[in-house]
Amino acid sequence: MNFEVFPRVNASLNATSAACLALGYVFIKRNQVRAHVTMMISALVASTAFLTCYLTYHAWRKHHGIGVTPFPPSSWKPLYLTILTSHSILAVVILPLIFLTLWRATRRRFDLHKRISVITLPLWFYVSVTGVVVYWMLYHLAPTLTR
């Protein structure tokens, strides 16, 4: 298996999750509940697949003695590190929020579901989008800075 494709796969899964979250939001605002549920479950599946691929890729790298991919010194590095740090912290914070939001929906506690979803949705969306941004900066922008 070619593990080097994993960063691109991970970015695609993050982009898919972000798109599903955005569509899910649009659908619930239009009171299209079934479409909302479909998009939110799809976002959950994409995010779960991302996490599985991410952990697999980094376990593979560690097993082969490969460290993290460094971002080269440049005027972009502080922005990259800021986005990466906020993304990483919120990626941990969002997990219990997603589970709580989903739990409330499955228990048909829509009053409580709505109350927590106004926090969960923007954070989850931010984590998904910044995952794509981190990928782009590290694998597309950074190589142009070292030429």
Detail the topology: elements first, then pairings.
Elements: H1 6-29, H2 33-63, H3 77-106, H4 110-145
Helix pairs in contact: 1-2, 1-4, 3-4
Beta strand count: 0
Based on the structure, what is the oligomeric state of the protein chains? single chain
- Percent of residues in β-strands: under 5%
State the helix count.
4
Q: Main β-sheet, in a few words?
A: none
Shape: elongated
* Helix amount: over 70%
Rg (CA only):
17 Å
Poorly predicted tracts of residues? none
Tell me the domain tally: 1
Structural class by secondary-structure content: mainly alpha
Spatial gap, N to C terminus: 30 Å
Mean pLDDT: 96
What this model shows, in words?
It is a single chain. By secondary structure, the protein is mostly helical. It has one domain. The protein is built from four helices and no strands. Helix 1 runs antiparallel to helix 2 (33-63) and helix 3 (77-106) packs antiparallel against helix 4. The protein is elongated. The model has no long low-confidence stretch (mean pLDDT 96).
Compact description:
With 147 residues, the protein is mainly α.
List keywords for this structure.
elongated, 147 residues, 4 helices
